[in-house]
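Lecture notes, unit on binding sites. The following record was shown on slide 14. It pairs a sequence with protoporphyrin IX containing FE.
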Amino acid sequence: MKDPDFDNSRSLLQHIFANLQNVRPKLSTDHLYVEAEILDNINAAEATVAVTATYLVWKLTEHPEWQQKIRKELNALEVQENGLISFADVNSQVPSLEACLREVYRLHPALSGRSERLVPKGGRTLSNIYLPGGTIVTNSVAALHRDENIFPNPDHFLPERWLEGDEEMLNRRLNQLIPFGYGGRVCLGKALATMEIKLLIAGLYRKYKTVMTESSTHASMRQCSTHDAVPWGLQCVIECQLVDDDQQE
Ligand code: HEM
């Protein structure tokens, strides 16, 4: 049987070609352009997810009590016929994982460098400063994410800040959490990245616990750079130990 939605859907490559043919027919065979576009997407999707997943595993290893909370919530989920739990359930019924991931997005954004924007024609006044049209402006993700008025004890990994408190404060925190950028050029892979990371963590911590090794330390895990910001030590070495079914916390 044919699925009309699937038959009508296009791959990214088909979109690029269709767009080129409609808008810039002369460039329709410009392979360099297409290659650059594809490489751009691969690059945007690869290290960002790896860096975020690495720091989430590291933070959970440093804070085993959060591993236990996540595992407890995962174990309460229905197991499907294929032996797996569904992403819909992981996404909606594991609040501890959501809270830990948000804390990692806040403390260790994979990209915290420039996301430039151009001030529109006519200029704009921001915080009482007039910016002429055409000015390139940017923001500081680190300053927003470590604003102590919104995130008390900003340098500490405190997932509970996403699970407690009144709704107004939670919304202010969410509004100030922008690891994927903001506005018209916000990251296109935000939902995919979050799905990949949550499924990875769910798969790992349902069966295993992770413990520290001597090879990775607070110093070696310091984040460097603002673009695909990997740890200084260029690695995160932890040990995975199978959790015995009888010893499930
Ligand atoms: C945790 C993982 C990721 C993080 C932290 C991240 C972060 C970002 C940031 C900060 C931007 C710039 C947004 C802006 O200028 O406001 C961006 C853009 C982009 N990202 Fe991601 N990203 C991630 C994963 C992905 C994935 C998995 C894909 C694709 C499958 C992807 C595709 C893109 C694309 C295509 C853009 C350019 C959007 C545009 O300019 O219109 N990203 N990302």
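Take-home: The radius of gyration is 21 Å.
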